[in-house]
Structure formats: structure tokens, C-alpha cells
């Protein structure tokens, strides 16, 4: 009996949750051809086709659907075993900072798993904007930070790539208008810059209908139907969905987030960083 490689299962779930091989490639940091080769290898191990042609993309066969649950359980057991061995004798303190994107989606379940296994380690959590967190990390106030990535940094230990999406209320906009009404975080914000640049590139008129220092403010404006926003799928819940194609919104790039570790950080912080690098891209989006 051949074993199921956890790395290949991570790629498979990245496809399942992202909906395409290209998105899976960006999540796991491999080329599309390497991802295709991994899926072919997985099909050889299983002995069944897992993917099928579906329109312009690919979907799952019945065997592929069956594998999803098994893959999630295998990876969960793999992570649980790794954490148990790492956390058995760990103690100390870990100060972690994150943007709201991951505080709302993905990070809580990983922090809980870490807290259970590293039960003698005191966790201190700080949620803020990327610039604030970067300053705190550089000042030694944080051991670890998840920030939006503007350029490569020497303290990066992992990079997460997720598609930016135009998002709106599931009820649509309250009123149609010629200008695109936007809900955006106050400067400086990578999503704000990407939204304005994309609209400027195609000559589409827009107005800032709502500005906020927090994602809660954006959520209020979008749910009210007075504006659209640009975020990732992590923001698309509680009445917020991807904007329909008839809105004619321009294409936007991938969002990049960096997992950054303070130089000289203690072992518990390094353990948590390794956990996030291996699992954060697979939590909080999709299944």
C-alpha cells in the first residue's frame, strides 16, 4: 500500500478550496506544472481519477469528493502529532501580531491548537495594521507577525498569496450609479492602492463612499449596500459575497501576506511560525 504524502494532500486541498490549479499553485508556492504533476501522482497513488474537466476549469470526480474529508483528517492528525511532540517541554512567551484578515479567519483555530499543545507557553496577541505591526516587530515588542507584504523582507519565513476579490452585499448595491462606490481602509493600505490602481488603469470612475480605520467599518458599509470593497475571500462571509460579473469591475492582482519572525526569537515562537507557514494558507478559506 502506498502512503499519502501530506505535501501532496495540501496541494490537493489548495485546489479544492481555491477552485483552480493556478490558485493552488499560488497557495503552495509551486509552479502550475509542478501542481499538475502532484495531482497526477496523487491519482496514481489512489488508483482513481480525482479531477475532471468542468467548463474552462476542473472539478472533482466522486473519488475526489471522497478524498477531501480523508485529506483534511490526515493533515489534522499530522499537525496534532507534530504539535504534541514540539510542545511537550516548551515554555516561555510568544507575542504575535496579525492583521484583522487572519484574526477573523484562519488564525484562531491554529492558535488554539498551539495553546493546547504548548500549554506552558503564554501567548500574547496583538491585532493591528501592517505598518503598526512591522514597527512593533522591529522594536522587539513582537516575536512574530502576519502583515501585508509590500516587498521581500529579511525576516520573512513564509509568504501567503490569495486572490484579491471585489466584494459586495449579497443583496447587491442599494442604488446603481455611474461611479463605483468604494469602501476602503484609510491610507496606507495595499488593498486601497490596488483598487484605485485597477480602476484608474481602465479609466473607470469611482468615489470613496466609505472610509474606515478598521474592517468593521468596511463591513458595515458593504452590508448596507452603499459600497463595494476589495479584500480576499476571508472577508466574504456574513452577507458579503463576490461582486457579480455584470458590475464590470477590472482584474486585480494577488494579495501577498508575509509571516515574519523576529531574529533571535525563542523556540516556541519558531514553532508557532512553522505551524503558520505550513497551515495558515489552508485555513479560513473554502472548506
UniProtKB/TrEMBL annotation:
Keyword annotations of the record: DNA-binding, Transcription, Transcription regulation
Superkingdom of origin: Bacteria
Gene3D superfamilies tied to this protein: Periplasmic binding protein-like II (3.40.190.10), Winged helix-like DNA-binding domain superfamily/Winged helix DNA-binding domain (1.10.10.10)
Molecular functions (GO terms): DNA binding; DNA-binding transcription factor activity
Entry keyword annotation includes Transcription regulation: yes
Keyword DNA-binding in annotation: yes
SUPFAM superfamilies from the UniProt entry: Periplasmic binding protein-like II, Winged helix' DNA-binding domain
Domain HTH lysR-type: from-to ranges: 4-61
Annotated InterPro entries: LTTR, LysR_HTH_N, LysR_subst-bd, WH-like_DNA-bd_sf, WH_DNA-bd_sf
Family stated for the protein in its record: Belongs to the LysR transcriptional regulatory family.
The protein's name: LysR family transcriptional regulator
Organism: Mesorhizobium waimense
Amino acid at each position: 500500500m502506498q502512503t499519502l504524502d501530506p505535501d501532496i494532500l495540501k496541494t490537493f486541498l489548495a485546489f479544492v478550496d481555491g477552485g483552480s490549479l493556478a490558485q493552488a499553485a499560488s497557495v503552495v508556492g509551486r509552479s502550475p506544472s509542478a501542481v499538475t504533476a502532484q495531482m497526477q501522482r496523487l491519482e496514481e497513488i489512489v488508483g482513481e481519477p480525482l479531477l475532471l474537466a468542468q467548463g474552462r476549469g476542473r472539478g472533482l470526480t466522486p473519488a475526489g469528493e471522497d478524498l477531501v474529508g480523508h485529506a483534511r483528517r490526515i493533515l489534522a492528525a499530522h499537525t496534532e502529532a507534530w504539535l504534541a511532540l514540539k510542545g511537550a517541554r516548551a515554555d516561555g512567551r510568544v507575542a504575535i501580531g496579525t492583521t484583522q484578515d487572519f484574526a477573523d479567519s484562519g488564525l484562531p483555530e491554529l492558535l488554539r491548537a498551539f495553546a493546547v499543545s504548548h500549554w506552558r507557553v503564554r501567548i500574547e496577541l496583538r491585532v493591528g495594521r501592517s505598518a503598526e505591526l512591522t514597527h512593533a516587530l522591529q522594536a522587539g515588542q513582537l516575536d512574530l507577525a502576519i502583515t501585508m507584504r509590500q516587498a521581500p523582507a529579511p525576516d520573512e519565513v513564509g509568504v501567503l498569496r490569495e486572490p484579491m476579490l471585489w466584494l459586495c452585499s449579497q443583496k447587491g448595491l442599494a442604488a446603481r450609479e455611474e461611479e463605483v462606490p468604494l469602501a476602503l481602509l484609510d491610507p496606507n493600505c495595499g488593498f486601497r492602492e490596488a483598487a484605485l490602481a485597477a480602476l484608474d488603469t481602465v479609466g473607470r470612475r469611482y468615489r470613496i463612499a466609505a472610509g474606515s480605520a478598521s474592517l468593521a467599518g468596511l463591513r458595515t458599509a458593504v452590508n448596507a449596500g452603499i459600497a463595494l470593497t476589495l479584500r480576499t475571500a476571508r472577508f466574504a462571509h456574513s452577507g458579503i459575497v463576490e461582486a457579480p460579473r455584470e458590475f464590470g469591475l477590472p482584474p486585480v492582482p494577488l494579495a501577498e501576506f508575509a509571516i515574519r519572525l523576529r531574529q533571535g526569537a525563542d523556540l516556541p515562537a519558531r514553532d508557532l511560525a512553522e505551524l503558520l507557514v505550513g497551515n495558515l494558507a489552508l485555513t479560513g478559506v473554502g472548506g
